[in-house]
Automatic annotation (TrEMBL):
InterPro entries: DUF397 (IPR007278). It comes from the Bacteria. It comes from Actinocorallia herbida. Residues 6-59 form the DUF397 domain. Residues 1-26 are annotated as: Disordered. Pfam families: DUF397. This is Uncharacterized protein DUF397.
Amino acid sequence: MTSAPAWRKASHSNASGGNCVEAAPLGPAKVGLRDSKHVQSGHLTVTAPQFRSFLNAVKADKR
């Protein structure tokens, strides 16, 4: 039996329910991403390098 992923909400998600992105490690080289408002819709699985690229792009976009 495998344990459930440990989902963490993004620090920029707000308490009123907007912009809720969660991430969880899914193994040694994979990360799951999901919308916390629609967890029943599943998640997107990306590689660790893809996730790092995503985070770098988000951090670079300081709008």
